[in-house]
Amino acid sequence: MRPAVAVAALLLLAPGQGAAQEMRDFTSARQRHGESRLTTRLDFAAGTLRLQRGDPARLYDLALTYDIERYRPISRFDPVAGAVHLGLASTGGAGIRVSSRGQLEQDAVVRLSPAVALALDVTLGAVDAELELGGLRVTSLRVGTGASRAAIRFSTPNLSRCGVAEVEAGAAEVALAGLGNSRCDRVTFKGGVGRALLDLSGSWSGDAELDVAMTMGELTLRLPRSLGVRVDVERFLAGFAGAGWTREGNTYLSPGYAAAERKVRIALSTAIGTVNVEWLP
Amino acid sequence: MRTRSGVLALLLAAAAGSFTPAAADPRGAADVAAGAAKDLWELIQQIRGEGGDTLRPIRARQASQPQAIPEAAPSGLMLDLSDLSHPLVLEEHLARLTAMAEDEMRVTVPNGTARLGAYSVGSDQTVAGHLLVVRGDAQVYGRLQGNLVTYDGDIVVHPGAIVSGDVLAIHGTVFDRGGEIGGESRTLSASPRVAAPPPPLSAGEATVRRLAGVVGVFLALAALGCLLAAFGRHNLQVVSDTVTHSFGRAFVTGLVGQILILPTFGMLVVGLVLSVAGILLLPFAIAVYALLVIVGIVGGYLAVAHAMGETYTRRRLAQGILVGAPSSYQFLLVGLAATIALWLAWALFGWVPVAGSLIRGAAVLVTWLLATAGLGAAMLSRAGIRENFAGRIIPPEALTDEYLWATPQFGVPAVKRPGAGSRATGPGK
Q1: What is the model's pTM?
Q2: ipTM, two decimals
Q3: Does A69 touch chain B (CB under 8 A)?
Q4: Which residue among B184, B186, B189 sits closest to A24, beta carbon to beta carbon?
Q5: Would you tell me which of A252, B125, B294, B343 could form a disulfide with A245, CB atoms 3.0–4.6 Å apart?
Q6: Model pLDDT, residue B200
Q7: Residues B318-325: contacts with CB under 8 Å, at least 24 apart
């Protein structure tokens, strides 16, 4: 009873009166000594995360500012497996924070060497993340997000061929941009609730397949006109803006599909929501 | 100005102090000169009021006289530097060490040495084992076969230097000038800094936020109340009548209930843990108990709101001000509006220095009183299953006063109570 009243009172009284956080800076880096590959696991519980290309001579470089009461930094390197685990984990202490806005003041920048083949596994909590993977050597990618806003970009071509890229989003806003530069044979996106943008721009080096599943929300496909796109749609209560497409049952073919040099097949499954298509020149 | 002069003196002294080892290496000398120039520029900016206090921490620290730290007794402080992956733990131990007077410092570093004050590994020197440097910089020109930790000091790895293990600067920075570090470089900043609190809201913004909060809570409670009225109206009415008929008992029962919530929970957990089968049920029991408490509190509060709304509405009906057949929904909304009124007053006038706090205190107190009575009524009536506390099994003749009270006195047709078929217990009901 008393806790309930206290919580109710806090809900009414607390907005805008968040307690100041005690923040600390932590850095971790490792020089590259002939390593050719690196399995990178990146867990980030809350805050702002930037991942980008770093100095080739440095295997990895992490710089973060974190709330010492609620989180602890992670930095573990396994030289035998050639794997590193970086990030920020919750300590599970210090009680309940009514407003989580303050957690977003945590900030991390991760830089990875473009000289090593990267198997990248990223898990995000309540995070505002920007992962710039262009110019790296990503051989596999898995991103799992909770209540996050995540932008995953290949602004420049991936320096290595990528087998599979998997992105799983909970209640999130996710953007995958420059997928043509990813050089991934297969891209899988599973969205729960929220908004997702799949931008297929970039220079495609071969044909590719995308498995896209969105439970509820808005999905936007941004497609270059030069790309031949085949969409196999399986939907329940969702609309698909298929104007200009050639339809054969549940299959839609983009204009000029047959003549396109590069073809992408999208297996699209969506339950409730909207699928928008935007064309790029 | 005295402080700035002191900073300048410290800066010059530190620059002079760090020049000696660097003199052996032209690039190192250039780095020192560049650092000194940078610090000087920052100092000038500070004097001009344009720069922050960004002078490198080591410049402001009191340097210790370089010396070795003797080994501690077998029962004394021991620091294992072979694993630096937990810098926070290491920091705690080192804080204990540095809390001692300098001449009393004792620490054992297995397979390593400990130094107090600035320390330098010369270019023709090889140090075997881990190295701990406290209150001073560690300059590495030569070879270190082990891990390197500084506390209140920077680590500078110069060109040609080799550190075979990890380096960790606690309350310092690692400067990699081109040397080789075989392991990981870590830094942990000095004492925590407090993040800037968000700017205070203006009175208008604060009022709008409070109003939004109050309206949000009202709507949420109204939605819950409507669901309760739709699917559990009988129970809601019984609890509501219990509050009306036995407010004092309900309040006392609620108070006792609050006190017993945690002990009862503890007994439940202990009881289940002691029995083999009970352990399996423990997670389920915890969830059910929490749910019961929440339902009791929220449901009880809504029942009190229902009772208040009903009393007010029937009084107005009796006075002939209102005409019609009010429902439980109307009772709930009227009651909730009444209970939320104080919070609304706080939302509007919370910015007034003393009155705002008083209104908030009153709102908290009243909310607690009503919730306590509601919980008590829910307990007394077994969540609306047991009706005798609501006066429902009292013979009709005992309800004469209520009948008279509820009967219109100005020729308005008698009030038809909602759900009269199932609830009628006396004339006029």
Answers
A1: 0.60
A2: 0.77
A3: no
A4: B189
A5: A252
A6: 74
A7: B318/B405, B318/B406, B318/B407, B318/B408, B318/B409, B318/B415, B319/B409, B319/B410, B320/B408, B320/B409, B320/B410, B320/B411, B320/B412, B323/B412, B323/B413, B325/B415, B325/B416, B325/B418
